[in-house]
User: What shape does this take?
Amino acid sequence: MNRRISGKVLALHLGIIVLLLGAQFVLSSYHHTNVARIMVFATFALGYNILLGYTGLLSLGHAMFFAAGIYGAGLTVFYFQFGAIEAFAAGVLSSLVLGLVFGLIVIRTSGVSFLIVTLMFAQAGFLTILYFNEITLGDQGIVISQVLQPLTLWGTEYPFSDPAVKYNAALLLFAVTFIICIALVYSPVGRVLVAIRENEARTRMLGYNTYKYKLVSLVISATLSGAAGAMYALLFSYIGSTFASIQYSIFPLLWTLVGGMGTLIGPVLGTGLMFYLVDISSGLTESHLIVVGVVLVGLVLWFPKGLMGTIREKWLTWLP
Amino acid sequence: MAAVTLLETSALSKNFGGLQAVQNVELRIPTGEIRAVIGPNGAGKTSLVSLISGRLRPTEGIIHFKGEDVSRLPAWDRVSRGIVYTFQVTSVYANLTCYENVALAVQRRMIGGLLDRLMLDEKRIAQGVDQALSQVGLQEDTHRRAGDLPYGHQRLLEVSMGLALEPELLILDEPTQGLALDEIASFCDLIRAISKRVTVLLIEHNMSVVLELAERITVMDKGMVIAEGTPSEIEQNEEVQRAYLGTDAAA
Assistant: This one.
């Protein structure tokens, strides 16, 4: 192995996956679907966190990668009757290509200009989807469940309408992403990315081509976000331009900040917490955003580095 | 026969708008030498070494390193060829441990192909880190946060990161600035030990350090080289005394 992952770090992170695997047998059907959705969004947040938390680049344009995954998978199903696996691959590939092309341009900027440029490109992407409305049906959205064939593996059919299939497909994506992130953070590349976050000029003077490393980070981040999008389209069978809107660029930022950027568990925890916060508070009152706001203010006051970030700083310094 | 030339600059110039920070500098450093560059504030010393390390692009002129023209290469590429710069203002990664700081340097010299970027033997990195930290006497602080070290130790950490890159030319920009007297003495011992393997280019204000360490001294003023010679030659040079020694050395 690379940098020695201590036993407890490995146990904790694999434990989360095992916990989620077991949870499906005890959760009520309502929470069952919720957790499936959370795992897909958490994948999005994990991808986002590679760029923000581990490289120090704040993007306001990740909706475009999520949407590239959604449309890459959704449209190929809708128009070409792709199977689930092919459609998923198409979604991942579109976000990877988009990430690469976009990265070659925007990695030259940093700080506030990076933020503005990503925001600008994402808005352009959103408008492009609406502009080609005849193809994308972006304004009203498409439901693909009628067209999507059940996944067939070794002769058994797995229809995506089955909650168990939904849950385990989401879990599989989440687990693979989580493990990729752990491996990345502990790899030599991960070490350089953190160094870039801490002090890019110094890292260059240690002989690293920081441009290349940042590009790699962006492409990985975009691809994971796109994988989340592709899975979302397949599992929840709806594709629409909302997923390319600014809202979906803010969400992963919020989830990551609440959970703690630059921690592995943080984005996952943040996603789950925000999801249930909105879910529960909207059940209590119509003006549920007030409740969400109060909780967020509390988090900023008592957990300035996000939940896991502050926990790591104060108590569990061994966390990656 | 003269020693092999490691670094040579010809007609090296750098302008910042109307300011000529470096003018027509011809510098030749043979392998194995300890060379000091001195001069009053604003003489262009840091600009000169920034040109050599690649942090700045020259307006004019050529830099040869080991016979190769490196003038157009980006800084990170020059580092991998053996030109290593340690910062004037200490810029270790304050939030990372000393281990991580040095590991970044050790890992850089181990990375060859793509696969190395994904997987390296951490044991070998740990050995390299241990070696580099021991050289500067920081092995006790391996797992401390670099930002928590006293200032003098941060400077030492900076040097050990430079050493871990296994440079051929180590550029030290005012390394003793802000160090206590006893720290300066041990720092001089360290530089002398390093110089057995590495060519050292030293920018320094502290004249006693310069006179003690340097084999040759280059004196700069207003962006130009005004004198070059052995320490005793420089001490006796009238122009140098007027420009520099007369004021600072007496203090």
The longest helix of chain A spans residues 29-55.
